[in-house]
Specification:
Number of strands of chain B: 5
Strand order of the largest sheet of chain B: 1-2-3
Number of helices of chain B: 5
Strand content of chain B: 5-15%
Oligomer: heterodimer
Helix content of chain A: 10-25%
Shape of chain B: globular
Distance between the termini of chain B: 53 Å
Shape of chain A: globular
Largest sheet of chain A: 5 strands, mixed
Number of strands of chain A: 9
Chain lengths: 213, 194
C-alpha cells in the first residue's frame, strides 16, 4: 500500500477542494493518519473504498478521542524595552471530539489506513457525517461513539445509545465525566479512590459529599 | 425426634437436587459451563440440570460482571424463582465489581440488591472453586431447620421473598443499593481518628 502521505496527495490531486491532512504519529508504531475535513468526509471515504489501487473495503474499528480545551505555552523572541528576550506566551487550543476509523482491504490484503475527523467543539457543534452508508460495519461502532463520547453522526440510520440505558444523560468516556458517587464501601482504597472514599466518609468536607453526585 | 429425622431427609433431598438457573454474564460463565462438563462433572452433586426458566430453578449462580444496565433483569429473575431459593455470587465482579469496581457502569456487588448465600472469590474462579462453593451451599442447606427461631428466610412469613427492582436514573441506578439487605461496612482505613 502507498504511504498515507502519498494517498493524501493522490486524493487531493484527484478531486479538487478536499481537505485532507497527513498527521505524523510519534508513537513507536509510527503509523501516520489522515485528518479529513468534516464537509468532505464521506467523499474521501467513498474514494478510499472505490479507488482501484486502495479498495479499502473493510472498516475494522471506529473509536473516539476527547480533546478537552488546553493551554499551550511557547516562547517567542521579542523586543522588551531595549533588550531582545525570550518571552513565554500561551494560547488556548479549543477542545473537540475526534472519531478515528481503521480501514483495511480484504481484497488487496493491505491496511490499516487510519482516517480521522473532528467536530467543531465539545458541546454544540458535535456532528460529523456518518460512514455507515459507506461501510455497513460502522453502524454499531458509531452508535458506541455516540453513546460514550456524544458525537452525532449525520446520516446514521439508527443513532441510539448502545451500552448505557436510554435515560442516561452524560457521555462516560469524556474526560470531564463525573462518575456517580458510590464510593460507600472501599475495603482497600488507594490514590484517587482513597480521596473519594475519605470525602464520602466525612460529608461536608472538600470533594464529593454524600449529597453530591 | 420424628421432626428431626424428617428435616434431615427433607434437607438431604433438597441439597442433592439443587437446580441452577441457566444464565451467564461473563467469563465466569465459561468456567461454570466447564464445571458441568465431563472433566469436573457437577452432576455428581445433583446440580447438572441447568433450568432455562426461573420458575424451575433453586439456585442462581451470578457468574460474571453485573453491569448497571443488567441489574433490573437479574433482580427480576431472582424474584421469579420459587422459594426456597439460593444465590451464589461467583467471581470477583459479582462479589464487589472486581477489576471494574471503579467503572461507571458496573454494580459493586450483586449483594446490594439480592441476598447472597455463598461468595466465591477468583477471577474467574476455577471449576473446583465453584464446586467447593456448591458444596458449601449444600452444607448450609443441610443445616437449615424447618421450625424454631433459627429457621431460614424462606420459612418465615414476615421475610420478603421478592426484592424491589431498581430503575435506571440519569447517572446511576435508583436506588443505588437496597438498604434493607445491604449496609456499607465501615472500612478500617476510613475510620475517623479518635
Amino acid at each position: 500500500m502507498e504511504t498515507p502521505q502519498q494517498i493524501r496527495d493522490r486524493i487531493v490531486g484527484a478531486v479538487a477542494g478536499l481537505q485532507v491532512e497527513c498527521l505524523p504519529n510519534g508513537a513507536p508504531a509510527g503509523v501516520p493518519s489522515l485528518l479529513v475535513g468534516r464537509s468532505c468526509f464521506r467523499e474521501v471515504a467513498i474514494f478510499l473504498r472505490d479507488d482501484p489501487q486502495l479498495r479499502l473495503d473493510y472498516c475494522s474499528n471506529v473509536t473516539g478521542v476527547d480533546w478537552p480545551e488546553r493551554t499551550e505555552k511557547f516562547k517567542v523572541r521579542r523586543q522588551v524595552g531595549e533588550v531582545e528576550k525570550d518571552v513565554e506566551e500561551s494560547r488556548v487550543i479549543p477542545g473537540c471530539l475526534e472519531v478515528v476509523y481503521h480501514l483495511y482491504s480484504m481484497s488487496l490484503k493491505h491496511g490499516p489506513l487510519v482516517i480521522r475527523v473532528r467536530t467543531g467543539d465539545r458541546s454544540a457543534d458535535v456532528s460529523v457525517p456518518s460512514l455507515t452508508p459507506v461501510w455497513r460495519a460502522c453502524e454499531l461502532q458509531e452508535r458506541e461513539v455516540f453513546d460514550l463520547f456524544g458525537v452525532h453522526f449525520d446520516g446514521h440510520p439508527d443513532l441510539r445509545r448502545i451500552l448505557m440505558w436510554d435515560g442516561f444523560v452524560d457521555h462516560p468516556m469524556r474526560r470531564d465525566y463525573v462518575e456517580p458517587d458510590d464510593y460507600d464501601y472501599e475495603p482497600t482504597p488507594h490514590d484517587h479512590v482513597l480521596d473519594r472514599a475519605l470525602a464520602r466518609a466525612k460529608p461536608g468536607e472538600a470533594g464529593c459529599g454524600s449529597g453530591a453526585r | 425426634m420424628v421432626l428431626t429425622s424428617l428435616q434431615e431427609v427433607y434437607n438431604w433431598g433438597r441439597k442433592n437436587s439443587v437446580w441452577p438457573l441457566q444464565f451467564g454474564l461473563a467469563c465466569c460463565a465459561i468456567e461454570m459451563i466447564a464445571s458441568t462438563m465431563a472433566r469436573y462433572d457437577m452432576a455428581r452433586f445433583g446440580s447438572e440440570v441447568f433450568r432455562p426458566s426461573p420458575r424451575q430453578a433453586d439456585l442462581m449462580i451470578v457468574s460474571g460482571t453485573v453491569t448497571k444496565k443488567m441489574v433490573p433483569q437479574i433482580v427480576r429473575l431472582y424474584n421469579q424463582m420459587p422459594e426456597p431459593k439460593y444465590v451464589i455470587a461467583m467471581g470477583a465482579c459479582a462479589i464487589s465489581g472486581g477489576p471494574f469496581k471503579q467503572g461507571y457502569n458496573v454494580l459493586k456487588g450483586i449483594d446490594r440488591f439480592i441476598p447472597v448465600d455463598v461468595h466465591i472469590p477468583g477471577c474467574p474462579p476455577r471449576p473446583e472453586a465453584l464446586i467447593h462453593g456448591l458444596m458449601t451451599l449444600q452444607k448450609k442447606i443441610g443445616l437449615q431447620s424447618l421450625t424454631g427461631d433459627d429457621r431460614p428466610r424462606h420459612a418465615r412469613a414476615d421475610e420478603p421473598s421478592e426484592f424491589p427492582i431498581p430503575g435506571h436514573g440519569e447517572h446511576d441506578l435508583i436506588p443505588p443499593r437496597n438498604p434493607g439487605i445491604w449496609q456499607a461496612p465501615v472500612s478500617p482505613r476510613l475510620k475517623p481518628a479518635g
